[in-house]
């Protein structure tokens, strides 16, 4: 997963910068390796009480990108498209790649972090596996071009601010905290 996520990140960076540019090279994204990234196994039990119960509340991912293998039959993943939620139909053998907040900041908003949620199923539990491409906490996150929409910040600073916002407001504010 680490190799796949790194390759995808470099290909996406090359699409923004052009092939051969230094930031799109072998070491992009800086600070990401097997020790900073992680794999999460998710289980969403069936919920016969409410058809509108969240398995996971609406959010964006705080990493560079996420590679997701969702349950091949149950479904439940939804993403925000414009102003409405759209179900992501499971396709056997397919992986889903979500752009995260760090990639949005680095690309100066050329790529957008996808808001998504998971809804429970009344009769069947759901499983998914997600790989998060994350840098070390002291890695600076800048943008690929000037003028930058965001000030430079570290991943650790970003994570701390997200946690503070959730405690204070009940939700993640995210990137707007780092706008210039």
Task: Outline the structure in words.
With 180 residues, the protein is α+β, with helices and mostly antiparallel strands. It has one domain: B-lactam Antibiotic, Isopenicillin N Synthase, Chain (Jelly Rolls, Sandwich). The chain is built from three helices and ten strands. The strands form three sheets. It has a four-stranded antiparallel sheet. The model has no long low-confidence stretch (mean pLDDT 90).
Q: What's this, in brief?
A:
It contains 3 helices and 10 strands; from the N terminus they run H-E-E-E-E-E-E-H-E-E-E-E-H. The protein is of the alpha+beta class.
Keywords:
four-stranded antiparallel beta sheet; 3 helices; alpha+beta; 180 residues; Jelly Rolls
- Find the structural class using helix and strand composition: alpha+beta
Task: Quickly count the domains.
Answer: 1
What is the correct CATH architecture? Sandwich
* Name of the CATH homologous superfamily: B-lactam Antibiotic, Isopenicillin N Synthase, Chain
Largest sheet: 4 strands, antiparallel
What layout of secondary structure does this protein have?
Layout: H1 2-17, E1 38-44, E2 54-59, E3 65-70, E4 77-81, E5 84-87, E6 96-99, H2 101-106, E7 116-119, E8 126-133, E9 140-141, E10 153-154, H3 155-169
Antiparallel strand pairs: 1-8, 2-7, 3-6, 3-8, 4-5, 4-7, 9-10
